[in-house]
Amino acid sequence: MPERSNGRLVVYAHGAGQTVDQLLAVGDRGRSDLVAGLVEAGYTVAASDAHGDAWGNDISVADYQALVALAREETATSTVFLIGESMGGLPAARLTAPGVLDDVRALAGVYPVCDVSSMLTAFGPSIQAAGGSAPQALLDELSPVDLDGSVPLIAWASDQDTLVAKVRNAAVCAQQVREGGGTAVLVDTIGEHGDASNFRLDQIQAFFDAATED
Known about the structure:
Strands 2-1-3-4-5-6 form a 6-stranded parallel β-sheet, with helices on both faces. The chain is built from 7 helices and 6 strands, in the order βαβαβαβααβαβα. It is of the alpha/beta class and 214 residues long. The longest helix is centred in the first third of the chain and has 18 residues, at 58-75.
C-alpha cells in the first residue's frame, strides 16, 4: 500500500512456479522493482497465490475476484488495473470479460500466455492437473483465451523467448483486442523468458494513466 493512494488498484497475476513472495523480493530488476515503483506512484498492488499453477482455471479467477473485493474493502480503491506475468496472462485476461469485475481500466501482459495449448510441451502435467476432471475443457476455453477489446492492452514480449512464444501468445492477445475494436500495444523486448527488458515501469504507468483519462 502506498503512503498516499491515487485510488487505483493493481492486481498482479503471477507466473508458473511463482508465489506472491516473488513480488516482494528486494533487488529483483524485474517484477519487484516494477511493483515498488507502482506503489511509490500511489497504486495499491494486490496479489494472490491463486491456487498456484492454475493456468487460468475457474478457481484461480474466483481467487482474484475475492482478492479485488477484499482490497477494495480495506483500501477504498475503485479503478482496477491488471498485470499478468507469463501464466498469469490467462486469469488476467479472463478478469477483463464483461461482468467479472467492475471498473477494469487496462490490462498489461509481461510475456503473457494467451494460448494454454502452446504450453503443453513444457507444462503438460501441470496444465492437465489444473483442468481437473475436464482438462480438455480448459484447453478448449483458453486456446486462446478470449479478449473482446473492451479493455485496452499493453504487452511486452521477445522474439527470442523460447518458453512462451510471442507469435502464439502476446501477438494473439493483441490481435484479438484490435479485432474487437480496442487498443492494443505490443512492445518488442529482448532476451529469453524473464529478461528485465519486459518490466517497464515508465511504459506501464503511462498506459495506465491514459486508460484512466479515457
